[in-house]
Amino acid sequence: MSTFTTPARTPEDPLDLPGARPCAGDASCSLHRSVRTLPLPPAGPDDGALLPAALALVLRRYTGRAEVTVGRLLAGAAGAEPYVIGIDPGLTLGEFVRQTARTAAPGRAVTRRGDEVEPQTVVVAEDIEDAAALFRETTAHGAVPFDLAVSARREGGTVRLDALVHADAADPLLAETVLRHVVAVLNAVIARPSQLVADTSLLTAEEQAFLDTCNATAVPYPRDRSIPALFAEQVAAAPGRPAVVGADGTVLDYAELDRRSARLAARLRRHGVGPGSSVALCAERTPGMVVATLAILRAGACYVPVEPGYPADRVRFVVADSAAGLMLAADAGRSAAAAAGVPVLSWETAADSAADSTEDAVETPGDAEARAYVMYTSGTTGRPKGVPISHRNVVRLVRGSNFAQFGSDTRILQTGALAFDAATFEIWGSLLNGGTLHLTDDATILDAAALGRAVAARSITTMWLTAPLFNQLVEQDALLFRPLRELLVGGDALSVPHIGRVLAACPGLRVVNGYGPTENTTFSTTHHVTLPLDDRIPIGLPIANSTAHVVDIDGGAQALGIPGELLVGGDGLTSGYLGRPELDARAFVQASFGGGERLYRTGDLVRRLPDGTLEFLGRVDDQVKIRGFRVEPGEVAQQVLREPGVQEAVVVAHQRAEGGEKYLCAYVTSGEDLDTRELREALARRLPAHLVPAHIVLLDALPLNRNGKVDRSALPEPTHPGHSDTSRTRARDETEAVLVGLWQQALGLDSVGVHDDFFDLGASSLTAAILGSGIQRAFGIEFSAALLLSHPTIEEVARLVRVACDSPADRAPRELPRAPEQPDYPVPPQQKRLYVEQLKDATATSYHIPLVAYLPRGVDADRLERAFRSLIDRHEVLRTAFEHNGTEVRQRVLPAVPFELGRGAGPAPSVMEFLRPFDLAEPPLLRAALHPDGEGSRLLLDLHHIIADGTAVQVLLAELAALYEGRPLPEPKHRYRDYAHWWEATGREEVRSRQEPFWLDVFAEPPVGADLPTDRGRPATRGTAGDRLAFDLGAGRTAALRALVTSRRVTTFSFLAAVHALFLAAVTGSYDVVAGIPAAGRSLPDLAELPGMFANTVCLRSRIDPDDPFEVYLRSTGEQVVEVFRHQDHPFDALVEQVAGERDYSRNPLFDAMIALQPAGTDTQSFLGGTVQPADTATTHTMFDLNLHFFEAADSIGAVWAYSTDLFDQATAEIFRDVLLRIVDGALAAPDTPVAGLLGHTPKPRIPRTVDIEFDL
After folding, report:
1. Residues of the chain with CATH 3.30.300.30
2. In this protein, which residues make up the domain named Carrier (predicted)?
3. Which backbone phi and psi does 134 adopt, to 5 degrees?
4. Three-state DSSP class for 169?
């Protein structure tokens, strides 16, 4: 009678059984049992070794170990005498059993201290009558409690096998699973003793057949067509359909994208680009990026993405390793392009110069096996790996696919950078299926409110997000995804709580977990996530024309439910790493099962669930995902070791919170006093942002375990370098204490001081978004993450918070009360001002908002008219009449109003022909007309400003599209009359008490006279006639501007406002100047998306010290802009009455010049498959002497300067432009230059000053 226990362990070498749970040492002896009976095999000399050998092999497959320690246990014994079973997969099964039988001598001694005992032991018993009784007896003697027991007993001509598990320590199914696998091995030993251990499968025939069905994914798709060939099909099918919509609203239809890419492809060919070539592409998310990508493919080459923010070393490596002979960039002067070491072409000038050279823009014959792109991933040796992806790989992803709904109605919002392989799905999933690719900027993607507006306004159907970014957006607003049809999330394990919140908030949304390495072209497996959720969200099944296999330590198919490495294959698989055959040999294998398919070893640990879906468990190695990028910490460690003074380095990934952002921490040793901040800055100059450790911890020595390896569990948690807990300034009041908690939570730190710099603590833009939303929730105030750029410490943010919470009413979001039912309602100041201005000239259209929408073929006029009527019924502001009752103007909501959509048989009239004055007493103050326009149609719209501002227009258009398409909309929570009634009842006094003192302080002293030099004298009454001058800062200035504001931590608008004030100083000769700024006026949370007129005008008064360096003046302006917008609700008309003195009707009160910045993508939005944008009217009206309007795009900042033609000639406006640009250039070239130096080198415009002289005749 003998018993074997396996394996003996130390705490450093735990045994992880599938389904095992932690169990206390005093656990009950309740057991689950599984029983099998086998025919008694022929007697042999090694029979006693059959069961331990079989169980050892099973445990090898479960755990991946090369040896198992076994102990002999006798009845009544208090412990086990261990010996070792080594498992050589190259032995035959017969040889392995004989080797096990020879291992009778005790192996290494195994001693256990009391504090090392872990209750997870496997017991093997042979020929024992009541194994369970023996196990209970063993436990009673004080031996380690077992988790699993397997016993064998001869019963006549059979062998009875029992498997038992502790009910408190393991899944009851574990007993059945282990016994099934032990039986499979025993059968193999008896039937096929000459079979190799490595070739012995644990699977039954039924299990193998089930696995085969999981990988039966072949479906027809155009596998032999190239990307350009498939794109050409879409051009031919619908040339006028929108293909790309930029962040700034730029629209390229399929025909225009075809023309531009053909021109650029022709230019590339003349530069020697052709089949087999590689072209580096330095690009942000712009329409030009899409043109360039397609042009490279049409030239027969492959594109190699290079992020504009890559350090020079990384750029040089990628360009050289990929053998790229040319780089395309939006701006050849960018730092990334400058470091390329190869000729650089600007794609704008390349496409333009090729405009007349389309004769050689002939499609290269499509080769589905040719490279489409090369993408670089992290490498363990410190050298990134180039992954070439073919046209067929890409086409398999987006054509014939079963994981997403692709079609002509698909509108995908691209969130990934071109160097991130999710962009493959986003770009080609749109363009190869006739859909529309929408682009936006990082600021919008990181801000839930802005992203939600973009998704709704553009009617986005499909979006991809990395898991950490998704989690953060959900924390801000889970409802933002409601307008979507599909949301794909991945790049890391999904957070069950966050996914659950979105599924509950957006019941019509299809959420997909997308998994896949770059080597298998973006997605390998996907899973449609539905409620209820388990503890883990599966990564699903292989997508069409792909395979996914779980393998054991010997490379064979792993049994169901048992963890193993995931191998993927199919038509998405790369041909291998670029020029790295030694890596290919390790990463790509021929399957030992099935048809010997070529597979990629992902290094991910998974298990297959009973329904065949795959569940992600972790990494086989220490590879992690940082911001969606796959990162080998070993690569980063190699880079750290290159820095002078570093002796040893290990890099570890940490997570800020459950479901939060992962970040890297480097632990280093040095023989000198190493400055960790300088070390991090040095790494940032060489590595992409996601590879730069957020923290660097300097240690005297790296902690080692008993095996001499770095003991990662003993590494300290990262803290901010250069500060001990005692040296930090702690919170000094409740506000700072709350902020400290938010800082620690966002950054995952135990200690933060009020003077610590947020970004020096390792924060990223995503962390800033997390903190921004946390501040909003904690204090109930509006707080933009952009404020952290200029206010990066707790002390500074606390100052902002106190200002925002200067009254009890501001400490929590104020609920807008419902207005009572009454015949009419008051008119707020914004509407009253417009009513008065309209009364001055009832025929004027100066205060209209004309819009034009360019729509594709097939828009149903009747359906559109019904949508308009539903919109009017939905929002009272569209049914409101404005009337003067003899005392004051009031607004009255009508129960219903007539509306008809104008319909034209011929081409649309001009906008000026369409505009007609509104009678403000006759709603709706909205009209629309639909006209045929080429292959599509044109919709003209006109609204009066008294019922809508810019935000309202975006909301109304998004809802109009939803109503047309039949998408459900939530009931409006508030009506405009609620705001009007609140303002009259309490709002006016609330705002006055909080904000009026600020403005009275700003204008405590009247501004010094600062007259603009004019070409003519002012008329007695200011007119509105005007013209405009359009110009552009250019890509070079814009890039330099953005670099400056990022380094100085101010906003783009702060820079533009600062140089605009210097312009006014230059042309007026005064250092005390005032400019007007438009403000949204929607500080109340309930007003964020309420249709109506809320816009206000605020004043930016600049008192310029000529001795200040520009960068000091810039920071001061940034702080002033923040304060101005914090006090934006005080009515401009009320301020005029209080501080402007006697009214001068020849000019605008308080200021003569206005400045505004239009964020990217807010002037144009998607609408019914087309786009809608402000109409370009033939006549320009201007309410101010000068109105400078900047428009931000991805690569440049454009400007339109509207000027009064009563005062200025066009030549003068051009002089003004030149003066402004000289100031911009001077500030960008030398930010430390004193302001006087910038103005001193700016020549005064030679404009005659005119003086009005009154003659008494």
Report:
1. 632-707
2. 730-805
3. -65, -40
4. coil
649 has pLDDT over 80 = yes
- Write b or e for each residue in 933-960: b if 16 or more Cβ atoms lie within 10 A of its Cβ, otherwise e: beebbbbbbbbbbbbbbbbbbbbbbbbb
Give the torsion through C-alpha atoms of 217, 221, 227, 230, to 10 deg: -150
- E strand spans, 330-473: 344-346, 371-377, 385-390, 411-414, 436-439, 462-466
1118: pLDDT confidence band, cut at 50, 70 and 90? confident
478 DSSP 8-state letter: G
pLDDT-derived band at 654 (thresholds 50, 70, 90) equals: confident
What is the rounded average pLDDT of the residues 129-157?
Answer: 56
Residues 6+ apart with CB under 8 A from 502: 474, 478, 481, 487, 509, 511
Radius of gyration of the chain measured on its C-alpha atoms: 36
As given in the structure block, the two tokens for residue 284 are 């942000």
Class of domain 829-979: alpha beta
Which percentage of the chain shows pLDDT scores above 70? 82
| CA dist list (Å): 1118 to 245, 728, 788, 882, 1125 | 32, 27, 12, 39, 11
Structure tokens that stand for 1144 in this block: 């001068």
| Residue ranges of the chain assigned to CATH 3.30.559.10 | 829-979
Dist CA 94 CA 884 (whole Å): 104
**Mean pLDDT, to the nearest integer, of 212-219?**
94
Amino acid identity for residue 802 in this structure: R
Question: Could you give the CA distance from residue 735 to residue 497 in angstroms, rounded to a whole number?
Answer: 29
Q: Which of 263, 11, 240 is nearest to 120 (CA)?
A: 11
Distance of alpha carbon 424 from alpha carbon 545, whole angstroms = 17
For residue 775, give the H/E element and its range. Answer: helix 765-779
Return all residues near 842 (Cβ < 8 A) that are at least 6 apart. 917
- Average pLDDT taken over every residue of the chain: 82
Among the listed ranges 279-293, 367-381, 695-709, which one has the minimum average pLDDT value? 695-709
Q: Is 1162 left (phi over 0), alpha (psi -120 to 50) or beta?
A: alpha
- Contact call for residues 1067 and 1249 (beta carbons, < 8 A): no
- Residue with structure tokens 């070239």? 1229
Residue 72 neighbours by CB distance under 10 Å? 17
Strands 122-126 and 148-155: parallel
Phi and psi torsions of 458, nearest 5°: -95, 0
Which CATH architecture describes the domain 2-202? Answer: 2-Layer Sandwich (3.30)
Q: For 589-644, write each residue's pLDDT tens digit.
A: 998 887 789 999 998 889 999 999 999 887 777 667 676 566 778 778 878 888 88
Structural domain 734-810, CATH architecture = Orthogonal Bundle (1.10)
Q: Rounded to whole angstroms, what are the CA distances from 137 to 27, 74, 141, 646, 969?
A: 14, 11, 6, 57, 68
What is the pLDDT at residue 1251? 35
Fold of 1013-1160+1183-1240: Chloramphenicol Acetyltransferase (3.30.559)
Q: What is the pLDDT of residue 169?
A: 57
Question: Structurally, what CATH architecture does the domain formed by 204-225+395-623 represent?
Answer: 3-Layer(aba) Sandwich (3.40)
Give me the pLDDT at residue 45, please. 65
Q: What are 458-496's pLDDT values in tens digits?
A: 899 999 998 878 888 888 888 999 999 999 999 877 888
Specify the higher pLDDT residue, 804 or 268: 268
Fold of 632-707: GMP Synthetase; Chain A, domain 3 (3.30.300)
Which tens digit of pLDDT belongs to each residue from 768-793?
Answer: 767 776 787 788 776 766 677 667 88
pLDDT above 90 for 943: yes
What is d(CA 793, CA 803) in angstroms, rounded to the nearest whole number?
16
CATH number for the segment(s) 228-367 = 3.40.50.980
